[in-house]
């Protein structure tokens, strides 16, 4: 029974995230999900986001300043963060091919993946 409950809760969290264009925090997701599911806890959302991120179904967007955010669009892409409104946009551009290998070769690192966030002022704020 518990596994079924987690599966339903995981689907609720995944659907809520995939239906958003922004990159919400756990608190943002909690506010939106709890409107339809008032008994869901923030811990449940966090636990399910962690499982979804580990399985590659969602992307954890870690920024140095501020809480972790999540992205339901898991195809590889870059982000842009507005320094004025703090909104995070998906960048519709191809990832730089060979960048992982270039960094690996230049610094003798083992690079599995990369995540780039451009920062500046968005069109709405400028």
Describe the structure.
The protein is an alpha+beta fold. Helix content is 40%, strand content 15%. It contains four helices and five strands. The protein has helices at residues 2-18, 26-36, 42-54, 99-107; strands at 59-61, 69-71, 78-82, 88-91, 117-120. A three-stranded mixed β-sheet has the order 4-3-5, with no helix packed on it. Helix 2 (26-36) crosses helix 3. It is globular. The model has no long low-confidence stretch (mean pLDDT 89).
The biggest sheet, with number of strands, parallel, antiparallel or mixed sense and barrel status, is:
3 strands, mixed
Q: Compute the gyration radius: what is it? A: 17 Å
- Beta-strand segment tally: 5
Determine the strand fraction and express it as a percent band: 15-25%
The unreliable regions are none
Overall morphology: globular
Name the helicity range: 25-40%
Structural features:
single chain; 126 residues; alpha+beta; three-stranded mixed sheet; two-stranded antiparallel ribbon; 4 helices; 5 strands; globular
Q: How would you summarize this macromolecular structure in one to three sentences?
A:
With 126 residues, the protein is α+β, with helices and mostly antiparallel strands.
